[in-house]
User: Fold Kynurenine formamidase from Nocardioides massiliensis.
Amino acid sequence: MSPSRAPAPLLAALSDGVEVFDLGRQYAVGMPQSPNHPAYWHALPRRHGDMVRSDGGSAANDIISMGTHVGTHIDALSHVSHDGKLHGGLDAEDALTGGRYEQLGAHTIAPMVCRGVLLDVPAALGTPNGCEAGYEITRADLEATVEKQGTRPEEGDVVLVRSGWGRLFAEGAPYVGGASGVPGVGEDGARWIAEHKVRAAGADTIAFERLAPGAGHAVLPAHRVLLVESGIYIIEAMDLEELAEAGHHEFLFMLSPLALYGATGSPARPLAVVSRG
Amino acid sequence: MSPSRAPAPLLAALSDGVEVFDLGRQYAVGMPQSPNHPAYWHALPRRHGDMVRSDGGSAANDIISMGTHVGTHIDALSHVSHDGKLHGGLDAEDALTGGRYEQLGAHTIAPMVCRGVLLDVPAALGTPNGCEAGYEITRADLEATVEKQGTRPEEGDVVLVRSGWGRLFAEGAPYVGGASGVPGVGEDGARWIAEHKVRAAGADTIAFERLAPGAGHAVLPAHRVLLVESGIYIIEAMDLEELAEAGHHEFLFMLSPLALYGATGSPARPLAVVSRG
Amino acid sequence: MSPSRAPAPLLAALSDGVEVFDLGRQYAVGMPQSPNHPAYWHALPRRHGDMVRSDGGSAANDIISMGTHVGTHIDALSHVSHDGKLHGGLDAEDALTGGRYEQLGAHTIAPMVCRGVLLDVPAALGTPNGCEAGYEITRADLEATVEKQGTRPEEGDVVLVRSGWGRLFAEGAPYVGGASGVPGVGEDGARWIAEHKVRAAGADTIAFERLAPGAGHAVLPAHRVLLVESGIYIIEAMDLEELAEAGHHEFLFMLSPLALYGATGSPARPLAVVSRG
Amino acid sequence: MSPSRAPAPLLAALSDGVEVFDLGRQYAVGMPQSPNHPAYWHALPRRHGDMVRSDGGSAANDIISMGTHVGTHIDALSHVSHDGKLHGGLDAEDALTGGRYEQLGAHTIAPMVCRGVLLDVPAALGTPNGCEAGYEITRADLEATVEKQGTRPEEGDVVLVRSGWGRLFAEGAPYVGGASGVPGVGEDGARWIAEHKVRAAGADTIAFERLAPGAGHAVLPAHRVLLVESGIYIIEAMDLEELAEAGHHEFLFMLSPLALYGATGSPARPLAVVSRG
Assistant:
């Protein structure tokens, strides 16, 4: 057993004081989600008082039933294939063992503690409330945002692209945006992200990428570019409003997905952490 | 909107290099868990190839069904009551709104980024592999461990108590330990923890506290002392072996529970992060 | 042990030939249902080939997650209360044991093999395709239908009220009818049913009773009259089209609900059986 | 629309009086089942009082999560394959559409109203309480039972084979019988059944066929003979005690499975109906 080493810089930074931003959404029955995935449901099989122990103690518990791509979540590389191949040219059939994605499953996503960059696109474009429904965030928009903010995503970082659409989460169905379309990067914006060799990209929408009005999830090129071609994870339905409002574009990013063996994604509650000024 | 502030100490510590220890267990069908909670089940409603988009793309997805107190998880303060009261004297009935614990539910657990302390009790006691089944970790054991390690949990920290029982996780049923009993703190050890005013306490067993052989979960005094009396969260079924092996007793602790509205707990994958020496 | 008795009339009728009408709907992901209940979801955890036995055998299996009031189903007397009371004046709290409705739960519904009467209301009213959205089937309509058909429901029978709305099932959302309203009996029609002392009443709509346009399930008087006041079960989302088309208004009715302990309802697939002419 | 025909023989038999025997088991959390299938779980998302309507009405509802092969259920022909083929030589892969068994799925099982024959094997063998654990019911045993009872299963009937093992259901784990073995037909008994060209065969055990002590479900030849080779459905975990006790060996059998699209089986509650003597 190696001796304990004093983790000085990190713990020192911690004692100086940190502020934590919650980038995840609450999971509640009826929250807006894609209809392609099992709805989030929750119930209490047992409430306090249903059974009381000999010493007056009682417990309540839960059952949840849900898809992994509902609410704030991360897509594993097993989630999307193209022409039958997953990332790295792996045949999607071969990735399965006993009916689960032993290869590239959600359990293979390493927990992330790394530099995070928030690209507040609407702020950079002068429309801080948010981009229009169905607006495609272009390579030029992303570059302009980097320029304005002075923060470029680097290799191994996580980049979060704010569209402002997250403001509609509380409204429910409008957030899903099937008819209206939803703003986000398109294929070229995804390539721009891939060129930066980040480990993951996140957005404040259900589908991460731009959805044209009425198009639904018919074709998702950014998913192909990121998950299949580049091995870059996608994080969806994030809450980026508070972080953007506070003006933090560079931070310690943490995401610890549930290690769901052989799954195609995991619900997650990412955090952005900054030193207190 | 305030200008972006350079989060220097934290990000500087990050660029110096960090090492991340995964303190959570994998979730897989058949993993050992308490029979009192809905079993973890997972399936892929859709596999690659079931449906192929016009551009050759295909997606796979998941459905999961589980209790929140299975695998590595955190207990919310809504989980345990005593004589009909939750923490703070709140009547358990009053905590419910529309059939969910609006008060003290899992959604009220703030994400944690704080100092963590690992108390490697068996190492301190000279039996590094682990404590015996049914062994009660006493106040004296905890103090001796603090003495030996030179790391005392402070107010607001998270304390993790290693019993070594986590080594049995891979064996399945023996880890549940109904007949054999399971090591852990008892009522007095829980009081010692409470006196330190930590925000949460974790262990490498399903029930966190000591279970006498054959006793099952009949009476759980440590849960009452911590959750009900002290408002201290409990984290269960952690994997502390690697962290203990590496000799890290003090670290940045991170736990970001899923904000499950009105639930009594949440699956979680805590992390211990240290600066690279 | 008593000797075997020859069940002559029933088996004789069987050998003469019977025709079976399926009065239930298929359960499939995405089928129209009330949003108040957990959605029906199904997946195959295991498909053929995932695991192969030593002799070349393989098996596939399922996981389903659903509410009990989705698709064709029967409401137990534990489903609806009024001013805190269930049928028979039983306090709804007292009906619970350990968090389940030990009293009046779905497990208390005796399997039904009895006379069934189909009241084809639109046919009797001269609009055989169906009643209008939001139309209230009145006491007069029911009497007129009995007159025309010459079949009156008697004590212990099951009465099925066709509105014709079932034709919309295949269309999905329109069948739910929130905005349009849905035809069915109102409070007085329910009283007419109750006066006949039937054991159950069924309809070809999700909510059984008339929904005014836009009203949703805000107030459901027929449920109160039947379940709470009269102890008469309600069967919803039936498929009555084929039976009506064939002109059978009197038949052997069979419904065998799943004995789900302590539940408030059960999915079911009722049958109407007639002798072949 | 054809005129209503008077279904005289069947309804006449009904009015003469019938007795209904429930051949299904109650579904409750913790009931004995095969560990290979998702456990039956049930909870009430809403209890009376959680929400109260403007008129004082309130409702309670359910969520259930379960495998289809738990409790009393019927196996569809999509459940078992041999060397990659389902019944009729259909390739198991070809039977799938969009990830579900469009061909031979549970939704293709026609509701059954037909003659049923109970073969009370232990009674015929002089051990009326039941067969021994792991006992193989042979072709000779089945013939002897037919001889003794004077009731032979004919083409299109449903045959129910009582082993008496159902008496252990209430004991839980012993009923599963992994270590002890479970009585039932073996391969040759299954062939005997198949030769009679019945439409389905049922038993009072979880696995229908004989399990040798400690063998588990490693190889199940009767499943192959019946489902794959003969297209005969299998009904498991039935309750045959009351029917046997009453001495009814011939009756009207009814089973109406839930039409679960693309599934491999369905929970069901079969009935045996006889005329009152």
Remarks:
- The two ends of chain B are 38 Å apart (CA to CA).
- Residues 29 and 157 of chain B are 33 Å apart (CA to CA).
- Residues 1-7 of chain B have pLDDT under 50 and may be disordered.
- The interface with chain D takes residues 30, 35, 38-39, 41, 44-47, 50-51, 65, 96, 98-99 of chain B (CB under 8 Å).
